[in-house]
Amino acid sequence: MKELNEIPKKELVAEAYALYREKLVAYAYKRIHDMEDAEDAVQDAFIRILNMGDMVCAATIRNLAFTVVQNILVDRLRGRVRKAEAYSYMYDFRSEASDEMEQKIHAQSLVENEHVRMKALPLACRNVYYLNRFREKSAEEIAQQLHVSRRTVQAQIQKGRMLVRAYLKAVGEY
């Protein structure tokens, strides 16, 4: 076997790979505990070293190989952390969006069922309930608009709420 100092660059890298591969794989495995990833990291390191050109010399190739393997392992670890953070964010965001969507659907269904029951109320009760619930008018305002007593309006609001609630409970919306 020739001395590493006497070998051209590509052959130098090939010889270094043959000499240091097992030690580098063991070094990588010790840090990441995955043999396939360790071997991939070592192969990637030597590909990078091949592309370094004149920076590679026989005196430093061993240390360079260990440094490049270490940098690759750090890069992969950072990538895994970013990937985990991204998945966590997406899960949290999707969960929140899903919860929000479910709430909107439930609220819409509740309002639709409320309208169904409101339409079945007696006419006077329906008018009062509608003005109070959907037009947000007070009992006093409704009484003035419909020319009835405030007490009558309050009784109609109470009756309407009771009937609508009973219906919503029966259909499982409340």
List the keywords.
174 residues; mainly alpha
How would you describe this protein?
There is one protein chain. This protein has 174 residues and is mainly α. Helices cover 80% and strands 0% of the residues. Helix 1 crosses helix 3. The radius of gyration is 38 Å and the shape is rod-shaped. The mean pLDDT is 86.
Secondary structure class reads: mainly alpha
Major sheet, described briefly? none
**Strand portion, in percent?**
under 5%
| Low-confidence region ranges | none
Radius of gyration: 38 Å
Q: Supply the number of helical segments.
A: 6
What sort of overall outline do the alpha carbons produce when their principal axes are compared? rod-shaped
Mean pLDDT level: 86
Tell me the number of strands.
0
The first-to-last residue Cα distance is 85 Å
Order of helices and strands: HHHHHH
Helix content: over 70%
